[in-house]
Amino acid sequence: MPYKSRVPCKYPGCGKLIPPGTMYCDEHAALRNSQYEKYGRDKDTKRRYGRAWKRIRDKYAAEHPFCEQCYAKGVLVPTEEIHHKLPLSEGGTHNRSNLIALCKSCHSQIRAKRGDRWQERRSQ
Q: Where is the HNH nuclease domain (predicted)?
């Protein structure tokens, strides 16, 4: 089966070819992420997700290399997100009992069921 052709990076002025399904080349993905963290992210959210969270998240992901929901179904999918079962905004904590390792698909499904993504957009 043939591979999909590579697409150009979406960053203005960059013409590097990247795999389909990605928005930016490695260089510009890091730049866009740092810009988001500095300017786009809500200050309250920024306060809750600092260095301590990054250490907790990385350690939990290392101990749970596969999506816990997919694993329960007998499918091995790598962990891409660490999710809080009870969100921090609703009184949840970074405690291990409140965390679950998920793939992007399962994480999106959970957020869609809760209405998190669409409520955020409506309120802005």
A: 55-108
